[in-house]
Amino acid sequence: MSISKRLAAFLLAIVMAVGVFSFTASPVSAITDAEFVAPETVIPDSIPQPDNNLVTDNVEFYLGEGTRNEIKMIADFQDASRTSYRPGDINYQKYIVVHNTGNYGATSTAYANHTWGSSTTGSIVSWHYTCGNDGIYQMIPANERAWHAGGNYWTSENLVNQVSDASNYSGIGIETATPGFPGVWNTDATYEWYETVYDSTATYLGMLVAWLCVSLNFNPYTQIVQHHNTAGKNCPEQMRYVFGTNASFVVNGTYYKVFKDRMFDYYKAFGGGYTS
Question: 97 pairs with which residues across the strands?
């Protein structure tokens, strides 16, 4: 073999080796919970509250209208005849219960999950709001019960978190959409998804929860819980995840803290009065 052919073969081997190395997935440990700094979100000092009573169907308006993060809200209630999913009895309105949908398909948007929940004839499940980057959709009036929180049977967790009375009868359920989540933890794909998709969702969720707290005179320090608190499920999973771990989940996961920080800022901007 000539020198030129040997050199070409050597270079080709290097290129192939680099290519194989580049496409080999490896865990990312540099992004830890302690080191993570969330992208900056501009939240005005004051935001007008929309004129909405939380119980009126077929209305559209913008939450945070005129701000950088304004988002359309659409009230599109389940038909009252679907009594298995919309029982129509009273919600005592003591808590906001935060969920993730757990649906990872690329098209699993807020609208898609809302549409599925409003039309399913399978699992008896319903909730009040679905929040995603494509909008916020209301399925059930805030003063009516929905099927989302479980039976409040995980006693030890309830006692630890002092939310033993949170249930379907007292909780306003919010599902956050998780389209495109890669289904793995602590990889480049994981953190890219948080940066490009879920960070915006956390902002919209913070604004929605803050507005609901002001509208219902809820204390955001004590009346916001996770599905985990009411039924022991690892939900909202993407918010409970601790950055830098292979699969560690806690109440104050990395993006639950991001959500809370932004929610408190929005709460103040909407004129909320609780400070602790």
Answer: 173, 225
11, amino acid identity:
L
What is the DSSP secondary structure assignment for residue 194, as one 8-state letter?
I
The C-alpha atoms of residue 96 and residue 98 are separated, in whole angstroms, by 6
* Confidence (pTM): 0.86
Please say if the pLDDT value at position 4 is more than 70: no
CA atoms within 13 A on the CB side of 68: 9
Query: Which tokens go with 49?
Result: 């509250």
**For residue 22, pLDDT beyond 50:** no
| Residue appearing with tokens 């919010």 | 174
Place of tokens 């998804």: 193
Q: Which CATH class is domain 27-269?
A: alpha beta
Instruction: Output the pLDDT for position 11.
Output: 46
Average pLDDT (77-83) is 95
The number of residues making up the chain comes to 276
264: helix, coil or strand?
A: helix
Cα separation of 110 and 197, whole Å?
A: 12
**Going edge to edge, which strands form the sheet with 224-226?**
59-63, 71-75, 135-138, 129-132, 171-176, 95-100, 224-226
Please state, in angstroms and as integers, the Cα–Cα distance from residue 106 to each residue in 71, 113, 132, following that order.
20, 12, 13
pLDDT at position 15, please?
A: 38
